[in-house]
Design a protein that fits this description.
Shape: rod-shaped
Number of helices: 5
Distance between the termini: 120 Å
Helix content: 10-25%
Strand content: 25-35%
Structural class: alpha+beta
Length: 309
């Protein structure tokens, strides 16, 4: 047997029972005389708290429970086994540290999973232009770069503050509609950028009209193509110059028509006398200002000039 020997006590004599043969032994016996088993005495313990009781005490110094006389071996063992054990502080600390480390590891895994699966938002957008000037009917395309390049949704939404001035499609292509100013906005996610749009009036192509209907003999065009002047009597003959009168008058009609001017304008020109001085008609919607004079010796002289804002 490897259990320790059971012990009972009387007021005067300490009796030890051999763990092997059960013989009752007295005194400070170290070996059983009956079977030779080594004797390891078991200390007396308190039935109340399980504390080891010193010899010759009547009450437990830990809890005050009265020392039992002649307790049975089984009772002594039961008291020892059922006595509350003091907590192992080192073990508690180790367990607590392990639990904390495990919790931190779990939280780190959760954060890593969330970061890996979360959608990447748009942080910035950049436009190729911030100001654009167009003429009616012209187009221009603005490109938009989204950052970061791996953003989840890089869709750009384009809008115009005034579609009567300029329109824009889903690819950033701007079309000038009519004279004025407006703003084109590109939006991606929560980020927006704007482009200032200025639309100018589309003016007539005087160079093209001059080339089609005029001759350098009796007409001139500005070096910047901003005006055309025609003269029915380019050499100022006192009796007029029949060589050019009909040709130039026909050209005036053709120029008026090409510019979209009203028929009444040509009639007003033919009814002008030298005493009326210089006449003027402005057509802002077309972008043309017309001036003319008539003199018997100089004939009818007409100038078409672009209205440049």
């Amino acid at each position: 047997m490897n259990e320790q020997a059971f012990a009972t006590e009387t007021a005067a004599t300490k009796i030890i029972h051999c763990p092997k043969c059960g013989a009752a032994l007295t005194g400070e016996t170290k070996f059983c005389p009956h079977c030779g088993e080594g004797i390891v005495p078991v200390p007396t313990v308190c039935r109340g708290c399980g504390a080891t009781l010193p010899d010759n005490v009547s009450f437990c110094p830990a809890c005050g429970t009265k020392r039992s006389e002649n307790p049975s071996p089984a009772a002594a063992v039961a008291a020892r086994e059922t006595a509350p054990k003091k907590p192992d502080k080192k073990k508690i600390i180790v367990i607590s540290v392990c639990a904390a480390v495990a919790l931190i590891a779990i939280l780190a895994i959760i954060v890593a999973v969330v970061m890996a699966t979360r959608p990447i938002p748009v942080e910035k957008i950049s436009l190729s232009d911030t100001q654009v000037e167009l003429t009616e009917g012209e187009t221009a395309t603005i490109s938009c770069t989204v950052y970061p390049s791996d953003a989840e949704d890089k869709t750009v939404v384009w809008t115009s503050s005034d579609t009567k001035i300029a329109t824009v499609n889903s690819y950033g292509k701007i079309t000038a509609v009519s004279k004025g100013e407006c703003t084109i906005t590109a939006t991606c996610g929560e980020i927006s950028k704007t482009v200032e749009i200025t639309v100018k009036k589309k003016l007539p192509n005087l160079r093209s009209i001059y080339n089609q209907y005029c001759s350098s003999t009796w007409a001139t065009i500005g070096s910047d193509n901003s005006y055309i002047s025609v003269d029915t009597n380019p050499y100022n003959y006192s009796d007029g110059d029949s060589r050019y009168f009909y040709v130039v008058n026909s050209a005036i009609e053709n120029i008026n028509s090409a510019l979209g001017l009203p028929d009444s304008l040509y009639e007003d020109m033919n009814q002008t006398s030298w005493s009326m001085g210089k006449q003027k008609a402005t057509y802002s919607s077309i972008g043309i200002e017309v001036t003319w004079t008539y003199h018997p010796d100089k004939g009818l002289e007409v100038t078409y000039k672009l209205i440049v804002d």
